[in-house]
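anyone seen this seq b4? input:
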Amino acid sequence: MHRLLTALRFFLFRRTPSLPRRSFSTLCIRVKHFVAVGILILLSGCASGFTSLAPNPPETFQKIGSASGTACGTLLIGPTLYNFIPIMLDTRVERAYQSALSEVPGATALVNVTMHENWYWWVVGTTRCVTITGEAIR
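predicted toks r here
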């Protein structure tokens, strides 16, 4: 924390020996730029577009019932922030989708798909479960 404050103080109040101390207006401009850059960094964090979970349905289809499927994956070793050994984590959405399809005999796809994710912390890792629900079609 001390290093961060020292770096911030240097950024705001630095001067060269041959120049006079910066004016208050220059300081205000630097603070505004610093705050603007900080806000841009915070707002550009975790952002992504929508992702399609299911393939596009055919032009004509028949709804045959509702379906739901769940699949889980695990991150092992350490507290939540430092988990680094994934076990069946990358494929959990696909496995949940296939589980939902297999729940209704004759289903070839799902429409009106929703996804819900839960995660559970346990002593040496976390388990993340995905539930896919939708209407089965053929």
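The radius of gyration is 26 Å. The mean pLDDT is 81. kinda curious what u guys think
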